Amino acid sequence: MNRLSFWLIWLFGAGPMLLAVFLYFSGFAPSNSSQRGELLPPGVTLSDWELIDPTGKKHDANGQWQLLLISTAACTDRCAYWQQQLPQVNQALGKDKGRVIWALAAESTQQNQVNNAQLPQQGSAIWLADPNGNLVLQYSLEQTPKDLLKDLKRLLKVSRIG
User: Rounded CA gap, 49 and 158, in Å?
Assistant: First the structure.
């Protein structure tokens, strides 16, 4: 009985670890993810885009989460819709609204807008950057503001930065 107890304890302790090692090295990945935006690969930062704000300063990481609405051509209906929705998404964050700023990125400068000649390469979309300037998620202009809001709330809840 003593020997059986030993092996059962060993099996229950090491079994999950052996299963995890097997799944890791076999390339297993969960099929579903919880984010609604497109998760971006690590290493892409805001400083790579060399954005300039209306005052002529470089737009870079500033210790806050940043939403950038990129419009590469004349603002379409969806672009205008998102220009109206981003401030409302920010207000819907409640107590965390001060942790997130938003800006419009286009080829010309206006109020609350940054620019760069390289923007047409990015395509029209909404980009989410963390407080360190790393681009984290991208949203199509066809997605709903509710998708963006749910992801933002989750990120701000688990994030200790910004």
Answer: 27
